[in-house]
Each structure stands twice: as structure tokens, then as C-alpha cells.
Amino acid sequence: MSKAVQLVTTLTPMDGKKDDVLKIITDMAVEVEEQEAGCLGVDVMWHDDTDTFILVERFKDQAAFEFHFKQPYVVAFKKSPVALTCLEAMDVKICSVAPGTFSR
């Protein structure tokens, strides 16, 4: 059985662009959960201390993760005006569940 994959993305909006960034990532999160059977869930969180969004996407396996990056809405996000003009920084980490821990 292939291991679950988690994508943890930290998005830092430019000043005054928080609402623009929130709209596009929540719209995309809904689309991911509706269109991708291999997606186990998407969490969008806001961290007040660092003024960043933290997006956690969970996929059942590597194949589901790779499928995600081929979707038109993911490709479009990378080229969208929000990604190009509203983000100060974006950090993406691909993670797996630590051995000996529990994840559904």
C-alpha cells in the first residue's frame, strides 16, 4: 500500500491582499475536494502571529498527489494574478506521516 502524502503550503499575502488570497485558495480547496477522489481533505488556516495562511492538503497516496498537480485549476493557480501579484511568499513542503504515528 502506498503511503499517504500531505502538502503543506504557507502563503504570505502582500499588505491588503489577504481577502484576495483567501478567496482563491478557498475556491480551489472546494474544487479539489469535489473533483479529486484521492484527496482526503483540505484545511485552510490563518496564523495571526505571522500573517500567513497555512494550507494542508492530504492525499491517499502518491498517485493521487501527482494527479492533483495535473488538474487545470492547480495549473491555473500558479499563473493566476493572485499568485503573481498578491503573494509576498509561498513555501511548499511535501510531507509523509511520521513512522509510528496515526493518520486517517
Structure write-up:
The chain is α+β, with helices and mostly antiparallel strands. The protein has one domain (5-96): Alpha-Beta Plaits. The protein has helices at residues 18-35, 62-69, 72-79, 81-85; strands spanning 5-13, 39-47, 52-59, 87-96. A 4-stranded antiparallel beta sheet has the order 2-3-1-4. A hairpin with a 4-residue loop joins strand 2 and strand 3 (52-59). The longest helix is centred in the N-terminal third of the chain and has 18 residues, at 18-35. The two termini are 14 Å apart.
Count the domains. Answer: 1
Strand content: 25-35%
Helical proportion, percent range: 25-40%
State the end-to-end distance.
14 Å
- The CATH C-level class name: Alpha Beta
Mean pLDDT, all residues = 90
Q: Specify Rg, calculated over alpha carbons.
A: 14 Å
Low-confidence region ranges? none
Shape, principal axes of CA atoms? globular
How many DSSP-defined strands?
Answer: 4
* Count of alpha/pi helices: 4
* Structural class by secondary-structure content: alpha+beta
The SSE order reads: EHEEHHHE
For the largest sheet, list the strands in their spatial order.
2-3-1-4
CATH topology: Alpha-Beta Plaits
CATH architecture: 2-Layer Sandwich
Largest sheet: 4 strands, antiparallel
Domain ABM: 5-97
Organism: Mytilinidion resinicola
Protein name: ABM domain-containing protein
